[in-house]
Each structure stands twice: as structure tokens, then as C-alpha cells.
Amino acid sequence: MMWWIFFSVLALSGLLCLYRVGAGPTPPDRTVAIDIFGTLVVGFCALLGIMEGRDFFLNIAIAWALLSFLGTVALAKYLEGRGFDE
Amino acid sequence: MKVFVTYLAAFVVWLLLTWSLDPQEVLAGLAVSALATYLTRDLLVELPPSKPFHPKRYLWFLYYIPVFFWHMLRANLDVAYRVLHPEVPIRPGIVKVRTNLKRDISKTMLANSITLTPGTLTVDVVGDFLYVHWINVRTDDPEEQTRIIVRRFERILKEVFE
Amino acid sequence: MSEIGIALISVGLAFDLFGCIGLVRLPDIYNRLQAATKCVTLGTCMILIGVPFYTGLNAIGVKALICAVFILLTSPTGAHALARGSHRSGVPLWEGSVGDKYKEDKEGGVVEEGA
Amino acid sequence: MKGMSLIVRTIARVVTTFIILYSAYIVVYGHITPGGGFPGGVILALGIMLLMLAFGKDLPLRKLPEGRASVLDCLGALGFWAIALLGFTAGYFFLNFLGKGEPFRLVSAGTMPLSNIFIGIKVGVSLFAVLTALSVYRRFYPPGEEPPEED
Amino acid sequence: MIPYLFATAMLLIGLYAIVARRNLIKIVIGVAITEYAVNLFLILLGYRAGGIPPILSKGMDLNKFAANSVDPLPQALTVTSIVIGLGVIALLVALVLRLYEKYGTLDESEIKRLKG
Amino acid sequence: MMNEGLHMNQALPLFVAIPLGAAFLIPILVRVWRRLPDIVGNLSTLSLLVMSLTLVGKGPSTYYMGGWRPPLGINLVADGLSVLLLVVVSLVAFCATLFSIPYMERYTSKSRYYSLFMLMVAGMNGVVLTGDMFNLYVFLEIASIASYALVAFGTEAEELEASFKYMIMGCVASTFVLFGVGVLYGKTGTLNMAHLAKIIDENGMSPAIWFAAALFLMGFGLKAAMVPFHAWLPDAHPSAPAPISAMLSGVLIKSLGIYSLARVSYIVFGMSKPISTIFMVLGGLSMIVGVLLAVGQWDMKRLFAYHSISQMGYVMLGLGLGTPLGILGGVFHLLNHSAFKSCLFLCSGAIEHEVGTRELKKMGGLWRRMPVTSTSCVISSLSISGVPPFNGFWSKLIIIVAAIQARHYVAATIAVVVAFLTLTSFTKVMRYAIFGSPAAESQKVKEAPALMGVALILLALCCTSFGLLYPVLKPLLLGPATDVLLRAGDYISLVLGG
Amino acid sequence: MEVLLYALLGFMVVGCIIAVEIKDLLSAVVSVGIVGICLSVVFLFLGAPDIAIVQVVVETLCLIILLRATVQRDDTTIYKYIESFAVATILIFSGVFMVLAYRAFKDLPSFGHPLMTVSQEYLREGLAKTKAVNFVTSVLLDFRAYDTLGEATVLFVSILGAIAVLRRRGRR
User: Fold this and answer.
1) If you placed Cys at E10, which of B28, E37, F117, G27 could pair as Cys (CB 3.0 to 4.6 Å)?
2) Greatest CA span in chain C, whole angstroms?
3) pLDDT tens digits, residue range D34-70?
4) What does the pLDDT look like over G133-148, one tens digit per residue?
5) Which of chain C's residues have a Cβ under 8 Å away from the Cβ of B131?
6) E2-113 to CATH, choices 1.10.287.3510, 3.30.70.20, 3.40.640.10, 1.20.120.530
7) ipTM of this predicted complex?
8) What is the CA radius of gyration of chain C?
9) Neighbours of chain F (3+ CB pairs under 8 A)
10) Is D35 in Cβ contact with A73 (below 8 Å)?
């Protein structure tokens, strides 16, 4: 029951994020939504990890934490109007 | 020195990641940390501060953590209030504040702390000036703005990093 | 111990939810970043800090703590980069804003355009 | 000023070490936890890519020049191929010819960790090479002007 | 059953983008979407209701594990197909960049010099 | 683990391992000495040719990768059809590498060219040898991706455009194939071809399997450039460098398209009436449309490319007839087509290398200036148009006779008409390019370099001898290949050992 | 849980439609990115953490590569009547495909109950035979290592191809 509530709350947050992806209006808005969604998934992985008692879910969480940042930075750099090599 | 600190940091993180003292894994950790250190030897630590192992720094850092979390919690309650309020009471704007910190790492920590605390988001750092997006601009006086936004952390970070 | 963990996780989830509501309700990209970054970062951090309380200090808990540190480092940085990028790509502030020092300085040449 | 703002650069400095460490962790533990050579290699490439995003192309290319990258790429592929061939000399192509060891230990499952390491090197280096090639590639040669010759 | 149809719908959307869009980036996006769809389909095939990941933890009973785990084979296939998709997209993007250099446009109908 | 009665061949994995190793080594070796890629590339294709010739006449054999028995692991199978394709691939690859030594001097970055070439050969050998559906897909992708890159190798605007178009089509095809593999796996829970064939044989066809069959037909049909899916071929094949065009037209569309289609539909699904009708319809359409499009062409390589479509139609028609004679004709035509079409493309490469144009109207009188090239060009043109002593005549004859025997008179008529149209179109080539009065561009041309000439002569000899040596070829190569398609049950017992 | 899965899948379809239809190319790329991220979450749901992690990293990489390709921000293409023919064809094709797929899927084992003819053997004997506790890796690197060689080769060939295509000069 407890887990059910946890996951529903998380899913609700996720859906709100996805609403922002769909609604836009500008590319940065969608990007924020991606960034936030990534952070939410970290929480989701952590919850899965303790629910199932397996530590590898946290590995995936770390991957999300490190990499969603990278995607955001790449998008931000693109938004600044510069190539990736400058 | 720089290399040694990097290696140590990498190795400690490896031990935490694997969370076991099996000799195989420790040996692998030594090798892997060496690889990571080789690739990033000039990155993690740029210019070491004058006394890197002075205990006072770490005490200040320990003090910084609860302060930071307290402000972060306040920030969240603040945002929650604004978001849940039916009229969305915001008065946003970008202001310019000045900091006394000199080193890159301390400026960065300051900027990130500002981003995570009530109503403020660092947009850019240029020289000594921070451009901060403020969700509720309370005053138009630059001195006052600086006092409200920056002073909370500046002193502690100065002790920790400089 | 595990009760503390559950409490932390619940609070964290609540903050996550607030952050996402903010993402939907607030008017422009900068305000959305404010709400979303702060709330979701803290919320996720609280979940991650709650994990070691719930399970004890084993592999799961330690990894969660490492993850929390990474989130604290990267999330505000991402938000900053995005704010800067969208400002430079010309996304305007919400019309109710009370002034934009950054734009003034960019036009005045204090901040280099290309940098 | 090359690269991105000061905040991003400083955080990139701090995080890159750990991204590379983490990629090695994913590779080495491929037979025990999810992951393996492929995701580990991609994380390695992304770690160096972060440096490129934050500092411009010079720093990562100093760490991994293109020539060395192409050699390492081939060496990684050759290593995996050699494991297959060694198994071939021991009886079957891709025979897992090493001792298997205990489950859950790091050194177990015969050739799998080795294969993972080779795939990791290969994937990481080659993806970094292609990211560099894509990012550095520019079109600014006007029609009349010939670009410089290269092999 | 229904998830399979979702995957098929994604595949068809990707195909639609490839056939009906004239912008090169949109076409590349279509290819990416078809790849997602196929990967999704493969993983859906291997799912077992209430299944656990096919990774053993210490102290698990092997028989119980074998009776509950999801199918590892489609997962192995999917890793391969994801990698192939990545390679294809890298090559496509390289081609798109070169085409943009040669023609100065991303519009396929302006690029058409060769007749089918 | 060895099962007596099963012939294990230790050499089978080397067919993939050698070109792969060469491909991985070449980028390193070029740093040592810049001529090493030439040597390594030619040596490896030569060794492949020798190894494939040793397989001829040995009877079917298998190999278990990693020592795992079939439903568990991947196995390699070299039965008659695979051996035929292996020989063809190695032969054309050897000639193409030989041709590349002087020809590729015009392009930069020769080491990458050889590396990609080797990977393409490895991919085709893998497709031909494998006994596993997913593995087929993987090697199909290797070969196709290498060919996409090679088509764009010159990085001129038209090449890039052709490559892009080809790549998009190829991606769609691969996606269909993978989707089909997924559906098959979901229905049967296995990926091994023999195991699949056994299960399908026991349970009969069901909607899911028909769906998979349709997907495979679309996927492999796209790769084989059958007519509704042919749009990419006339752009892609002429744009590539000449040795690559020879490989693409000569073997790639066969091993990736026709071979895979035949293998899957005959062995895995078991040939049935609807599939064979579809084969014949597709074949007939391809023959007519291909040749009609070719008639109006003035670009030499494009003309050859359209003829590839039409000649592939013959192969499909032969396979679709389903009678022993029809399949024999199809398989024989497949062999012949790789010889003469590669020869034609290499000739066009040699001419382009010396004269500098592909326009037929700008050539003329080449037989005086380039005797070797012109002779081989004439021989292969006569072969493709089905003029008696050469090989194309015999295979077309067999297919037409088979069609008449099977009472498919329409198909036979189409085959005859298309043969005449082909002859017309190649008369044009000979009239304008080889004979006729010398054009301004072809006044000062010289004979192509010696190594190119060797490759051309080798292929022209094949064109002549395949026709004359038919009595020798039939028991060694063609008969076993036909038997494989006719008796699918043998395959199951060969692999599963039951 | 099933409900969440369907919600995510539904959103992915919507995301794909957005990516295909939107005019702004950057937004299209970002939408594809989020579809990939959702896909990774779906993989977590479906008990495939191995694939989830691969999908995350590949998604980030793909996003960067696609961003690099977005050299123009707007889809300025003008759609002419000839395209409406293509659209009609693909719509008819989609309808036929969907019907056939529906019939085929009804024939497959129902969702959540795979056959596992071969895989059961991997699960039961894999540990004893390979001593690897991650069964995906043991399938990938031992039982079907030949596929993995192919996979590494595909990456090698496509990247070699990309670098070859990006050469500054093609001919001497």
C-alpha cells in the first residue's frame, strides 16, 4: 500500500513533467522538463532499489544523475548558439 | 600533490561504490583509480589552497552542511507556498550582486548554493559579479540585494575553500 | 530507523510533486527552473538520504548517498547552464518581471556576447 | 573565452573524474550487476565529451589525440577478436576457456570480464572519436577554395 | 497484446516520418523512432508478469529464480540492436552534415538531383 | 560434445574472422607502411578464395560457436547454397581488391576504404554462413552499413545523396527484418533456423508466422531491390567507386537479399504456394521494369544498375518456380550474374579511370585504345544479353525451359522478351562505347593499369568458362545448392542432429 | 503497475507524434530525447535494468549527436501535393499493417507469459555453466558471444564510415 502511494505520487509528478514537454512552448521549456524528469527517475530508481532490495538499481540512479546533467549541458550549449567544440 | 589527491578521491569513491573489502575488488579499485587519475590528473584539483589538510576547513565544512540544508528546506517551503497559492505571487527579475570570493571552486559552490536556496537562480558569473534571477525581488538597492543573497554563505565558503 | 526513512521519503516525494506543479503553473522558463530545480533536487535528495535510514548502511544506502552528492553537484549546474543558454538564445522574461540587469549589461558590453 | 561559464567548467572538472571511475566500475562489474562493456564505454565517451562541452576541443584532444584514439579503437576490437581466436585454438571459436571461478567474485565467469574490458575500451574510444569528428567538422570552405590535403 | 500494439504504432509513426517528411532531420528522427519501437517490442516479448530482473543476488534460490525471472534472451538481443541503432544514427548524421555542406539546405526536395 | 555423423568443419569461423581481423588491423598497419593495406587486403581475400574453394564438393558441415549446441548457442552451417555464395563472394571480392590497388589511388584515405571493404566481406560471409535468425540480422547490418559508407566514399554531392537514400531504405528494411525476428521469437521462443523450421513444420503456419513472413519479404525484398522497392538501387550502385559497384551489384544484393529470402522462405517457413506466387510476380515485375528503365539510359553505370534489377528478376523467377529445374536455373543465373555484372562494373570503372566520363555519347572507338578492357566488356555484355556460347545464355535458357515445363507460359514469354530487350540495350553500349568512331574525349586514352587488366581478364574468363564448364559445375556447386532448397528436412537433421 | 506502464507507453506515442509533427526542429529533437528516456523507464518496469542503463547512456549520446545535426532550427520545408500522395500511401499501408499485426499479436502468447523455450535453459543452467550471475551478460558474452562480436563490429564499421564520410576531401 505504502509503495503504491509512493509510486503514484512519483508518477503524477512525472506526468506533470511530461505535460510540460508536450505543451512547450519553447525548446528550453522542454529541456527543463527532461532535466527534471531525469532527476525524478533517480528517485524512482532509489525506491525500486529499496523495494526489491537489490543494489544495482542505485547504479542506474547514479548513471541518471551523472548523465542527465550532460544532456542538459549539451542542450544549453546548443541554445547559446555555439558548436560543441568551442 | 594534485595527482595524489585525485587518486585518493577516486579510490575512496570506488571503495564506497563497491562497499566491500574483498582483495580482488580493492586491487581492481587501485588499478581503476589509477586510470581515472591518469585521464583527469590536472582537473579535479586546480590550485591547491595553502593548507589543504588544515582541520579548520573541515570543521567549517561540517558547519556549512546543516546551514545549507536549512536554507534549502526554507527555499522549498517558499516555492511550495508560491506554487500552491492560487494567484502565484511572484515578482521576478534578474539582479546583479558582487562577491568577494576569488577561487573558481568557491565561486561555483556559492553559485550552486544560491541556485538551491530561496527564490534565487544564478544565471551567469562574470568576474566578481553574479547575475541572479530572483523570483521575488524584495528590494531595488544593489547593496541590500547583495546582503540578502550572498552573505548567507560567503563567509563560510571563504573559510572552507580559501 | 526505518520510520525515519519512510518519513524522509514521503517528504521528498511531496516536494517532488510541488516542484512539478511549479513546472506546470509558473509563467516563464526562469521561474519554472526556479521551482523545478529547487524542489525536485531537494525532494530527490531526501528520498536518497532516506534510503540508508530505511535499509541500514549497506551497499544500497552508501550508493544512495553517493548519488545524493552527485545530484547536489550537477542539478543546480544544469539549471544554471539552461538559464544562461535560454537567456542567450533570446527567450524573454515574463512580462511581469521587474528588470533585467543581465540583458542591460549584455547590451552595454559589460558581458561579452560570444563568451 | 573558450568553453562554457565558470560554474559549468568547475563542476565538469570535479565530476569528470568520477564519471570515468564510474564507467570503469560499470565495465568491470558487467558480469555481476547490470552494465557491461557497452554502457561503460559510452559513459567513458560521454565523460570526455563533457570536457569538450565545458572547455572546448583542445583539452580532450590533448588527453586523447585522434591518432591514438584510432589505434586504441582498433586494439580494443582486436582484443575481443583475439579472445575469440584464443578460444578457437582451445577448441571452439568463442570458447570460454579461462577458469570460471566463484560466482559473485570479481574474477569469475572466465573470459567475460576481459571481453567487457576490451569492448569498453573499443566503444568508449570510438564513440569519442566520432563525437569529436562530428563536433569539430565545419563546412567553412568556400567553393573556390580547396581544403588542405590529408590522408 | 495492447503493449505490442503501442510498439507497432510507434513503428508506424516512425515510418510515416520517413516517408512523408521532407526534412532530413525529421527523417533521421523517424529512423530513431522505428528503432525505439523495435527495441520496445523485443523487451515486451520477454516480459513475464510479476517477473524479476534476470540477475541473481546473493542467497537467492536458483529454481525459484528460474521460475520467476523475465526472459534474458530478448534483453541480450536488445542490447545489440540498440548499439546498431546508435551506429546507424551516427552515420546518418554524418551524411546529413555533409549534405548540408554541399547543398546548404536540409530540404530533401531541393536536394533531389538524382532521379529515382 | 561432438556428434558422430555430423561433419564439423573447423575452418568455418575463419571465413568471418579473417576479414574481420584484417579490417581491425589495417588502420594500425597503415601507420607502419602505407602500402601495407593493399597487401593485407589482397592477401585476405585471396586466402578466403582458396578456403572457399576447398569447401567445394565436401558436403554440408556445421560449426558450433563457443561449443554450445544449437538451440542454446549460435551455429554456422555450410551447405551447398552457402558454399556457392561463399565462392561467389570471395571470387568477386578478390577481383575487386585487385582492381582497387590502382583504381583507389584517386581517392584519399585508402586504408579506411580497405577496412570498410573487409568488413563488408565479413558481413556477407557471416550472413551466408549463419544458422541463427538474429545473427543473420546482425551480419546483414554489418554488410549494409559498410556499403552505405562505401557508396558515400567519394564524398561528392551525388554520392552523399545516393548514400542517404540508400541508407534510409536500408534502415527501414533492417527494421522490418528485426521486427520479423521478434515476432518469430515471440511465437516459437527460439532463434535457431533449424529449430524454428522444426517447430513450424510441426505446428503449421499461423497468423503470426505469416506476418513474420510478410515482414521478411518486405525487408529482404528491399535489400534485393525487387521492383516495388527498387528506388534506391539505380542511385546507389553507380555512385560508389567501381570496385564497390561490382561488389554491390555482383554479390551484396544477392547474399543480403536473394540468399536470405530463399533461406528463410524455403528452409524456415517451408515453401508454399502463396509465397512462390509472390516470388514469381515480383520476379516478373522486376524483369520488365528494370529493363524498360535501362533502355533509355545514357549513363553507363546507371544502365548497368538497372540491368541488375532486371537480372535479379530472373533469379527470383527461377526460385519462385519451385521446380528442381527452375531452382537450378535461378541458382546458376545467380552465379553467372555475379561474374558478368562485376566484370561490367569493373570495365566501366576502368573506362572512367582512363576516359574520365560515364556518358556513353562521349566515348567511342575504345577497342583500339583499350583492347583488354574492351574485350572483357564485350564478353560480359554478350553474356548478360544471353548470346549462346557465354554463361548467361545457359542459365536464361534453363529458366525459360523450366517456366515452360511448369506451364507458366506468361513468365516464359516475359523472360524471352526481356532477354531481347537486354540485348538491344547492350548493343547500344557496344555501338557507342566500344566500337564506333572515337569521340573527342577518347583520342588520347591508354590501356588501364596492369592490375586492373588482370582482374578484368579473370572475370571475363569466368564468364566464358561458366557456360562451357556447366557439366563440371553442376555436380560440384549448383546441384548441392539446389538440393538444399528442395529438401529442407535435411537441413534440420544436419543442424539438430536428429 | 500495469496502469503506469500503459500511461508511459501512451505518452511515448504522443511524444513521437509531437516529434514528427512539430515545426521547430530543436523541439523535435528534444521530444525524441524524452521518448528515449521514457523508454528507459519502461525497461525498468519490465524487469530489464541492463537495457535500461544502456538506453540511458545511448539516449544521452543520441541526443548530443542529433543536436549536432540540427544545423537549422526551423523546418522550412514546403509540402506539395505530391507529398499528399505519399501520405495517403503510408496511411493505407499503416492501416493494413495494423490489422495484420493485430491478428498476429492475437496469435502470440499473451503479454506477460512468454514461451521461453530456450531461455528456460539459460536460466536453469547458465549459472553452473558460466558462473556469471548476470544472465544477460552470460547470454551476451558467452552463449551468443558471436552476436556481440558482430555488435562491436557494427559500431566499428559505422564509426569508421562516419569518419570516412567526414573527410575533408574525397578525391585527389
Assistant:
1) E37
2) 57
3) 888 899 999 999 988 888 888 888 888 888 888 888 8
4) 888 888 888 888 888 8
5) 101-102, 105
6) 1.10.287.3510
7) 0.93
8) 18
9) D, E, G
10) no
